[in-house]
What we know:
The complex is a heterodimer of chains A (about 500) and B (about 120). Chain A is α+β, with helices and mostly antiparallel strands. Chain A folds into 4 domains: about 15-125, PAS domain (Beta-Lactamase), CATH 3.30.450.20; about 130-235, Beta-Lactamase (2-Layer Sandwich), CATH 3.30.450; about 250-315; about 340-509, 2-Layer Sandwich (Heat Shock Protein 90), CATH 3.30.565. Helices cover about 45% and strands about 25% of the residues of chain A. In chain A, strand 1 and strand 2 form a beta hairpin. By secondary structure, chain B is of the alpha/beta class. Chain B has a single domain (about 5-120), classed as Response regulator (Rossmann fold), CATH 3.40.50.2300. Chain B contains 5 helices and 5 strands, in the order βαβαβαβαβα. In chain B, helix 4 (about 90-95) links the parallel strand 4 (about 80-85) and strand 5 (about 100-105). Chain B is globular and about 35 Å long.
Amino acid sequence: MATDPTGGKRLEDPRVLLSILDNLPTSIFVKDEELNFVYSNVLHCEMIGRSEAELLGHSDADFWPPEAARGFLEHDRLVIDSGQVNISEESIPGDNGASKPILTRKARLTGPDGQTYLIGTNTDLAAIKQREDQYKALSETVPVGVMQIEENGRVAFCNPLLHAYCGGDGADEAKLDLIDKIKVTHPDFPGESCKFEIEIAPLGVPRRSVIVISSGWLWIGGAQRSAIVSVVDVSEMTELRRINEEVSRLNRELANNMKRLKEAQDELVTKGRMEQLGQLTATVAHELRNPLGAVRTSAFLLERKIKDKGLGVEAQIERINKGIVRCDNIITQLLDFSRSKQLNCQPGDLDQWLAQVLDEEAKKLPAAVTISCSLGLEGGNVPFDPSRLQRAIVNLISNASEALVGQGDDPAKFATPEPVISISTQRQGEGIAIEVRDNGAGMAPEVLARIREPLFTTKSFGTGLGVPAIEQIALQHGGRLDITSAPGQGAVFTIWLPLTAPSDTEKAA
Amino acid sequence: MSRKLNILVVDDDAANAESLAELFAMDNHRVIVAYDGEQAIEAFSLNKVDVGFFDVMMPKKNGVDSFMQIKSTNPDARVYFMTGYSADDLIDTAVKGGALGVFSKPVDLGRLLEAVEREAA
């Protein structure tokens, strides 16, 4: 509502005005030019602990200790003399020696009576001081560096931890230095609200990683804006993170090494087992072949002695001899599979050698089986161990023959009316391929899947070591054995050998 | 008609040695049997041996070492080897040292008798 300042409604009753002054939440006093109290509202009386009667007509010197009174009076005199408003912190001495902090605002006033007066207001600072102390204590105990930077660049407050980060006590220069350094990479600091991580290394202080958080410019009392800046030391976290990453890296490396170690161990165990098996087989072979030899010689002698005597035991003697051959074949296969000795590889004309081997083997095959040959290496030199590779070839051919005609004695059991084993050689990549193909019944997928397993056999008389032995020999040469087959399509066994001699490690495999 | 030979059979497996001895004797050859390498050396020194059939792996002295020793005093010694499994290094030494051949055990008797016949021819 608009009021007319010159209107008759203006309060003029002094009692009403005094009542208003008594009810203000501000302590108000008035002194005359001699600095004697001429007015004190209720709050002022309460604040300094004196009644109005005690105050009026008296000066501070009448009831304050001389030193305190001198301080008050000096301020008062300055205001009266200069006419300048004075705002300052003062302390009102208490009864028990404790003093009460107040913020005093004093001004010179010329009254309607023409006299000069001093009018003052006091604000009790105790609560504010208490809070300040709390904040100070808080800022000293938090594990965070805190400072208040004014817009003009002055550092208004800095807690001890930030002092320490900047290089010790009283290092205002250092603080400014720090702010300047931060500003190089973060030009908006500290005016813009921000948060970032940087490394700081003030002179004589260990380098540390810190997170800097600025509130940006805020009005926090005073005549200009300030920013509250927190600095959190994350060096340990950074170090921890680095250690963590290092540990993770080492863990991965360890896991990797463990895996390699396990593989190496497995390889050693396998190799060790193969060596053991090789020794065992060699011993067994030797121990069995001696009595086999004696049995064979004895059967031969028997045959001679009863010859022409018409005893009719030829079939039995034949059975003994076949038994000996079978036992010998089993021993040979065991030896082929378990031999872990190094190969004796020499470069040679593989086609020429193979032709001889096939010539020899063809004679042993059942008559029904035809061998067809197509050797296409054209004289290239291939490193191979003739005695070992011969075992592989012999095995392949006898397997093919058995797949075609079984024992070869019953055409009703033949897989095909025209059993053929086709053998070919050719260059293939960085090596050569020896292919042995039969036109037999082929293998079911489940048989093909297990054909390389030691002891797996589909024959009533097999050891299940033939194919593993062939593969072993190929591997020892640094090569491999490929097998393809399908029911009704025969089977193809291909030994692939590299053109370069296998390395020592491969040889020992 | 082939001549009769003095044949030395060396094998620590008695059944083997004796059955072979009987086989050769059946063809009217004179057979001496030895059961280890040292006996073989002794047999060679005491007898005129036309041909020997030596086992390789034997106690006291193996067949190849015995053969090499025999060779040193009797460079013309004629010896075949018989082996249960190929002891490559020893066989190699024997072949390079002048052995006539190597039979795998159980010995193929047809081939063995052919060898004897060649010696007797």
